[in-house]
């Protein structure tokens, strides 16, 4: 998986997981809340595995989006 797909998947996992966990918690459906928590955690975990520089392999900070240049090695990304 490349870094762009990883970034999108992170946000999809966080948003979908949070919504499912909130709905499951509000309706007292434990399995739905647990599934939402698992999806949220999976979205975050895959980010630690795949949101990296394709040149040097360093993990990027997710708060700034996908960078144009790697903050570690300085290589052009796009």
Automatic annotation (TrEMBL):
Source organism, top-level taxon: Bacteria
Keyword field contains Transmembrane helix: yes
Residue spans crossing the bilayer: 7-25, 31-51
Keyword Transmembrane attached: yes
Keywords from the named record: Membrane, Transmembrane, Transmembrane helix
Protein name per UniProt: Zinc ribbon domain-containing protein
Lineage: Bacteria, Bacillati, Bacillota, Clostridia, Eubacteriales
């Amino acid at each position: 998986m490349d870094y762009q797909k990883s970034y999108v998947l992170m946000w999809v996992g966080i948003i979908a997981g949070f919504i499912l966990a909130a709905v499951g918690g509000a309706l007292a459906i434990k399995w739905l809340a647990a599934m939402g928590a698992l999806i949220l955690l999976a979205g975050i975990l895959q980010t630690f595995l795949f949101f990296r520089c394709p040149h040097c392999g360093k993990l990027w900070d997710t708060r700034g989006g996908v960078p144009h240049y790697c903050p570690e090695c300085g290589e052009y990304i796009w």
